[in-house]
Amino acid sequence: MSLLSLDSIRHVLARLEETIIFGIIERARFKRNEVIYKPDGVGRGLKGQSLVGFLLRECEKSHAKVRRYTSPDEYPFFARLPASILPIVRLESPLRPNAINVNAQVREIYETRMVPLVCEPGDDGQWGSSAVNDVNLLQAISKRVHYGKFVAEAKRRTQPKRLAALAAAGDEAGILAAVTDVSVETRVVARVRAKAATLAQEFGPRPGRYKVKPAIVAEIYRRWIIPLNKEVQVRYLLACHDGDGRG
Amino acid sequence: MSLLSLDSIRHVLARLEETIIFGIIERARFKRNEVIYKPDGVGRGLKGQSLVGFLLRECEKSHAKVRRYTSPDEYPFFARLPASILPIVRLESPLRPNAINVNAQVREIYETRMVPLVCEPGDDGQWGSSAVNDVNLLQAISKRVHYGKFVAEAKRRTQPKRLAALAAAGDEAGILAAVTDVSVETRVVARVRAKAATLAQEFGPRPGRYKVKPAIVAEIYRRWIIPLNKEVQVRYLLACHDGDGRG
Predict the structure, then answer these.
(1) Are B14 and A59 an interchain contact pair (Cβ–Cβ within 8 Å)?
(2) What domains sit in chain B, N to C, each tagged with a CATH number?
């Protein structure tokens, strides 16, 4: 049950902020390198995939073989991954069974909105390094976003009647309002910005400058990560709402 | 030629420090989880491999397919990787042809010495996350260590006669002395420690504490990363020494 304590959830989410900030800083070393997001952009050998798509899928294939996606806090970008070659351990999940996965949106927003915000325009030829960093960062953002399921389940248990009524009525806007806490969101964005101001600072010859502007990291949270997390919460609450709590 | 300017080399190495520090901080989130380094430690499905070995090899296989290891600053841990499925671009390399690869040592030292220094003892069940972080960190350390080839080539060009004479005499100790600059090494270790003091600080409820002690990061550089880098330099200078500079 500790997975659903608000303390435990807050700790995981706060720690993931640093992972995401590290990932953004690492990606910002390289230019946009748009060619790595285009199907066949780096060569026909990839059979219609982009370089990032290819590496992400290869990564997920190998991780699926060691049962990454049996964990209730890990969601793949690709379907039809290979079976695990390790014995499956049925992890005790506090979540209701559900098939919610917003990674298509995560990837679309990442490639078309976040990268242009984080990276300088142009192509520096560092395609492989950029794509490897993209894979790591996409996986961290996906984890952060899908953690909304744990947040939603915790809320469902603390205010079961109110949320069940909204869900039974299919009231998406009502659920979104119920899971929104503007003061918490403001605090998260401010905290992320403060962390980035520490972690993204340039050392050495350019003190006082940043590898990525803290305002950009804050903006990524405000515009995309927090809203996508809430979207996961809303979808979860809509899907898992039946009266006896077994939705 | 700019790849061999000391400014360019210093910039790459300094920037890699942050990547390595990020990697150490990320790995330190988890306990040692010794089982992930043992052959078949997480299950027989891996056919004698450890979890880290399996994931590292799978990662290198997919990266080899997109020609990571044709780059003169990338060296794999495994042999017999698949061929590239992209057209090979012959990158202009400023290095002499050589087959130097110290990744067996890097991996041995990483698994048996660095991890116990960085992580708390015990097993927290976070095997997959620990192993994924290991793969990223091993690759960053390998890159840093093998960058010694660029350092050595730059030195070979600035003091060709002295180094060629030592190499022709097979004087390893002499070459090691020639590539050692204690004041530079001291400065690097101090800088790494200062960066870690910034990057590894705990935010939130435990200010003034560290995710990893800066002294530990400094120690990893002092005891292993710098010496392995110099070992690469020595091996390179021994192997590439003939009189006309075409060793």
Answers:
(1) no
(2) 6-242 (1.10.590.10)
